[in-house]
Structure formats: structure tokens, C-alpha cells
Amino acid sequence: MIYRYFGQEELDRRLNARATVTDIAPFMRAYAEESAKCRSELDCRAGVKYGPKDAERIDVFPARWPDSPVFVFIHGGYWRMLDAADSSFMARQFVRAGAAVVAINYELAPAASIDEIVRQCRAALVHVWRHAREFGGDPARIHVSGSSAGGHLAGMMLSGGWAEAFGAPGLRVQSASPLSGLFDLEPVRLSNCNEWARLDADSAARNSPVLHLPDPPLPMVVSYAPNEAGEFAIQSEAYIAACRARGCDVEFVAEPGTNHFDLPLRFMDRDSALTRAVLRVMGLA
């Protein structure tokens, strides 16, 4: 056995999100095309730098009114695919509802380690917190979301104690919605995903949100698709249980008929269960 009751082949299968759909290409196109539409139709400040590296940039959709909540989205792609340019398809609905929207970009694996990707996302969040009022946002009302690897990275943004090292001791995430995330990276380290994740035991533990839980009482919405690969489902349930035990207010929202890749596209529908729940914890219901 490699991990729990699983041999290598079974562990690799349990982490294979692609195998849950026939073809991921239509979903990748939808991310890119719908995000491009939002950038063309809305006020968008694309490519705002938060660090010196080319990949360290965010796309910002300002709020219509001052002191609005800020919806921050971190893209997935197993830490090795996609871009902020593929990650703002929800902007139309959330700006209309009264939020600012920020899509975070980061350097991809294997060129960047998971440690470095987490560092970049935290630096981006600090930048958002410091500059929120410049795009109509309230720095005390930041909501962090992400899907798949972005769900993992959202979890790492919620963990306590890191903001002080970035010179931002006042930064507190107000609410969150990690979707289809991986919250324990030990099985990732032992799987074929480590070909690009390049984790060792220490870095896997250091970057596992289930070992670095949010400070309560953090309102949180968690969801995963009905047909998720095994680890994505079981880890989401474990993270929900751990956060609730710590005192966080966690709501699971079901989206029947979705898969790992189209679940975040539900943010394009103002009336979806997922969108309604997130707007509610953001104070925009």
C-alpha cells in the first residue's frame, strides 16, 4: 500500500480529475471565452502587478460603489495550467451584485514550487488588501475563492499567522468558498502528480490547509461535484469537518449535474445555489 488502503495505480486514479470527464477542452475554452467577454464588457484593470515576476499580476474589476466586498478568485489547473485571463468569468454577476472582483495569476509548476505559488498568492492578497479602496473595495470584506488547485490555494490564504510576515498584520479574510480542493498534499506527494508538484514530506505538510486551519468564526461555502475523483471529495469532507470543529461556520452547497471542471462556471448564474450562498456570506444576498 502507498497511502491508506491504496496502491499506486488506485492512488493515481483517485487524484485524476481529468478522468471524470470525456474531454476537458470545452471547459478550458469556456473559461477563456467567458472571461474575455467579461474583460471586454466591464471596466477591467488587466495585468496589475503585485510583484516583480512576469506571472505576478492580477486582473481587477472595480466595484460600482465604494466600500464594496471584494471577491478574489484563484484559478486551478493542478498548479501547472491556466491563467488569470481564464479566471474572471464570474465578474459580470458579482460586479452587478455589488462586489469588486480580482483574479489572481501565479507562476506555474514545475517552474515554481508549491511553496513559491503559495507565497505569490499571499503576496497578491496583501496587494488587494492594501489597494482595495482604489477599486471600490473594502479591505475588511475580502472573500477568497478558488477551484481545484485554486481551492487548495484558497485554503492556504485562510490559514492563520502568515500575514504578519508580509507586513500586513491587519489582513483578515472575511469569508471564503474553496471548491473541489485538495487540502492534504501528502497523497499528492505519493502520486504521479508529484512529477510537477515536486513535494517532499515537509513541503507537503507545510502546504496542507487541513493542517493549517482558519481562525474562527470564518463563514465558508464549500462545494465539490458529484462525480469527483475520490481524493477531491473525501478531502473536501475532511476539511469541512476540521473547520467546523475549529468553530468556523461552514456550509456545504450541492450543485447536482456538475463536474470538476464546470462547477466554478456556476458562478456565471446569479440564481445558482453556489452563487446565492457565496453572495449571502459576502453580505450581498
How would you describe what is shown here?
The protein is α/β, with parallel strands linked by helices. The mean pLDDT is 98.
Q: Identify the strand order in the major beta sheet.
A: 1-2-4-3-5-6
Amount of helix: 25-40%
CATH superfamily annotation: Alpha/Beta hydrolase fold, catalytic domain
- CATH class categorisation: Alpha Beta
**Largest sheet properties:** 6 strands, mixed
Mean pLDDT: 98
Assign the CATH topology. Rossmann fold
Number of structural units classed as domains: 1
Total strand segments: 8
Low-confidence stretches: none
Spatial shape: globular
Content-based structural category: alpha/beta
Share of residues in strands = 15-25%
